[in-house]
């Protein structure tokens, strides 16, 4: 339950004075639906007005307030702007300009012969001083209505800086003093104001560093605290200590030796699984680093100990692929493995459910379906989540909550997370890293090519498949709003278009797969591709994670600039899986921003996922690295990446200390910290508080 003291901050924006239906829409668009949203809506800057008694060319570029008298209207016959010729008290001349249909309104504001205060940005054009669209025109008596300083906000249609400023002010006046959750010595050291004062200051003086850091700190602290609470709750849980005797692992007959990193990670996992409190561990390993080997061995530890293991994949395709790989590798072993996806119905599903309940199925592979209420395990000892980067933090918290009560949990991700973000993204987990590639991998050769060259590319694609090669051709989602890229109509349209173009050249050798297809159709196409019946697979990002077809050595990515670096790296990882040389062609559009250019150059030069992630962070900011685009959830709203590197170590230590000292958050500071959790909507953490 949210503490009562926060109620005013969670009140609807609608309750503020002057918010009618016209304002609601743009406010909603900016997600300013509650008072706290307004308070945390950070200004983009500040405008200072220069008051001057006469027009002065040295003020060009500044926002001025001038006393002007209208002399003459000029209304061109064509499409030109409406102009008012005006004079200052000393006879200095200026033009005021309005584009569009604003002349009658402008005439009303400035009748000929009358004197007004006019404010706007002073410009010069063809040696004429001018103000385009003055923001203020008021009678001399209303001088005070034009503020000398004005806070600026990111706007959308229907909002003005001043309107937002007024709403923020109202929200602030209604906001309570909150008990202090920051350690007093820390406040003193940084000279940070109280929460309420910080909020006020940041809106009055957007460059007030101490105020900004204070609130940024609050946000990070709440996040870290929630993660520490989950971690502490996990430590208190009683799980099953699982000790395998190795008989199943020894019976495996794999065609390769594990890398040192694979052995080390498995040893860490094995150590965790022997503990009474459940494992909560992240296995981080670049594409192709061999996470499946680690998963298989971990699952076998559970089976050796007489427990069941489950592997959760993000998509149907991946679940099936894992199932097939693992089934092959387990052939001849006394281990029963089954597949369960949302698509399985009827008798087969029934018998799988029975096998899970009576323990005759030892290992289960599947999609989300495997953690539904109706699925009962006899004794689930280990749950593995693969390619976790499709889950947001909130989703993971829920999964963790479910899983914490029972099995050991291993999360595997190929998304290389920069070290600086590891703690905020995965602070509740221990981490193992596969920082070594299996031997003999050749890096994928990456080239950036203009999409004007598509005819030539199709020609060389023709040679590639004539030699028995296979290739992917990936099309992006179009437009920012396509969160579920695989299902975006635009992405599908783009893929379908490419598909029919390539079909004209290669006929039946071309296949198409995207998220909107029926699962059975998708599987058929993927199977045909894996079996070599299809040579060119046109796809949306549905193939991004995990799909493994070693004979495919050519990856073509359409409009590569539309993908994130991490995503491009993932896609590139689909090739280079066999012994031979692999190539990745990044098709770029004609006009590129300099950042886009830099990003494509980076991916061309660099094969190291971790470095790419660090650079992507530098170029684009933290949100996209953390997969927030996919989950639609923003990680930090206030703290910028730079603030983060400064504040995170402090906030993290502080949160840990607090949880160590007062794990129930029941002391005075603990109670205050609870408020911070709710205020920053990290209250998932509250459900993990130690009771009593
Ligand atoms: P990812 O980490 O991307 O899930 P996979 O587990 O799919 O990687 O492994 C990629 C490929 O490398 C697979 O074909 C797998 O059999 C192979 N592989 C894994 N470990 C090794 C190893 N130690 N030596 C050689 N090949 C390996
Ligand atoms: Mg994998």
TrEMBL record:
Keywords: ATP-binding, DNA damage, DNA repair, DNA-binding, Helicase, Hydrolase, Nucleotide-binding. GO terms for biological process: DNA repair. Residues 470-618 form the Helicase C-terminal domain. SUPFAM superfamilies: Nucleic acid-binding proteins, P-loop containing nucleoside triphosphate hydrolases. Residues 272-434 form the Helicase ATP-binding domain. SMART domains: DEXDc, HELICc. PROSITE patterns: HELICASE_ATP_BIND_1, HELICASE_CTER. CDD domains: DEXHc_RecG, RecG_wedge_OBF. Signal peptide: none annotated. GO terms for molecular function: ATP binding; DNA binding; DNA helicase activity; hydrolase activity. NCBIfam families: PRK10917.1-2. This is DEAD/DEAH box helicase domain protein. It comes from Zymomonas mobilis subsp. mobilis (strain ATCC 31821 / ZM4 / CP4).
């Amino acid at each position: 339950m949210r503490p009562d003291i926060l109620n005013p901050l969670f009140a609807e924006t609608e309750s503020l004075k002057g918010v009618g239906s016209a304002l609601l829409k743009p406010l909603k668009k900016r997600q300013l639906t509650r008072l706290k949203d307004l308070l945390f809506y950070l200004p983009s800057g500040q405008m200072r007005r220069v008051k001057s008694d006469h027009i002065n060319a040295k003020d060009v570029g500044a926002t001025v307030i001038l006393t002007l008298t209208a002399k003459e209207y000029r209304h061109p016959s064509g499409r030109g702007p409406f102009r008012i010729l005006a004079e200052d008290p000393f006879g200095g001349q200026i033009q005021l300009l309005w584009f569009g249909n604003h002349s009658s309104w402008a005439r009303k504001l400035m009748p000929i012969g009358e004197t007004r205060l006019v404010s706007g940005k002073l410009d010069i054009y063809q040696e004429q001083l001018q103000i385009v669209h003055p923001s203020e025109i008021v009678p001399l008596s209303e001088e005070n209505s034009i503020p000398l300083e004005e806070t600026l906000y990111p706007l959308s249609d229907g909002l003005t800086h001043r309107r937002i400023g007024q709403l923020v002010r109202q929200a602030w006046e209604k906001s309570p003093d909150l008990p202090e959750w920051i350690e007093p010595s820390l406040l003193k050291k940084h000279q940070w104001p109280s929460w309420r004062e910080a909020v006020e200051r940041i809106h009055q003086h957007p460059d007030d560093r101490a105020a900004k850091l204070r609130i940024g700190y609050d946000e990070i602290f709440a996040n870290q605290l929630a993660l520490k609470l989950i971690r502490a709750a996990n430590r208190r849980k009683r799980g099953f200590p699982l000790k395998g005797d190795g008989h199943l692992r020894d019976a495996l007959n794999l065609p390769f030796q594990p890398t040192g990193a694979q052995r080390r990670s498995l040893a860490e996992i094995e150590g965790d699984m022997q503990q009474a409190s459940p494992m909560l561990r992240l296995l981080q390993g670049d594409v192709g680093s061999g996470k499946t080997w680690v998963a298989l061995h971990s699952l076998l530890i559970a089976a050796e100990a007489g427990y069941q293991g489950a592997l959760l994949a993000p998509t149907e395709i991946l679940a099936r692929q894992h199932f097939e790989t693992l089934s092959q590798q387990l052939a001849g072993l006394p281990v029963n493995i089954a597949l369960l996806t949302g698509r399985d119905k009827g008798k087969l599903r029934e018998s799988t459910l029975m096998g899970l309940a009576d323990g005759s199925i030892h290992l289960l592979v599947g999609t989300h379906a495997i953690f539904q209420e109706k699925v009962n395990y006899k004794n689930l000892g280990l749950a593995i989540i693969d390619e976790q980067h499709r889950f947001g933090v909130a989703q993971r918290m829920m999964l963790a909550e479910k899983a914490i009560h029972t099995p050991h949990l291993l999360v595997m991700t190929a998304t290389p997370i920069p070290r600086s973000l590891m703690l905020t993204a995965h602070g509740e987990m221990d981490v193992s890293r596969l920082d070594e590639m299996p031997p003999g991998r050749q890096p994928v050769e990456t080239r950036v090519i203009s999409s004007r060259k598509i005819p030539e590319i199709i020609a060389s694609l023709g040679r590639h498949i004539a030699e028995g090669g296979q290739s992917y051709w990936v099309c992006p989602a179009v437009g920012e709003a396509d969160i579920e890229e695989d299902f975006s109509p635009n992405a599908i349209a783009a893929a379908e278009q490419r598909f029919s173009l390539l079909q004209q050249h290669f006929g039946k050798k071309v296949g198409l797969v995207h998220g909107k297809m029926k699962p059975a159709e998708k599987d058929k196409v993927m199977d045909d591709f894996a079996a070599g019946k299809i040579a060119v697979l046109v796809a949306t990002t549905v193939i991004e994670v995990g799909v493994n077809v070693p004979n495919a050595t050519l990856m073509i990515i359409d409009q590569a600039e539309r993908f994130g670096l991490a995503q491009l790296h993932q896609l590139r990882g689909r090739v280079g899986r066999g012994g031979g040389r692999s190539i990745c062609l990044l098709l770029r559009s004609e006009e590129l921003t300099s950042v886009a250019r830099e990003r494509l150059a980076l991916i061309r030069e660099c094969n190291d996922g971790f470095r790419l992630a660090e650079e992507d962070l530098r170029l684009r900011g933290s949100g996209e690295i953390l997969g927030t685009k996919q989950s639609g959830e923003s990680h930090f709203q206030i703290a910028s990446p730079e603030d983060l590197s400064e504040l995170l170590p402090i906030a993290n230590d502080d949160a840990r200390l607090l949880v160590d000292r007062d794990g129930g958050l029941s002391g005075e500071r603990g109670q205050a910290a609870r408020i911070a959790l709710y205020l920053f909507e990290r209250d998932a953490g509250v459900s993990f508080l130690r009771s009593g």
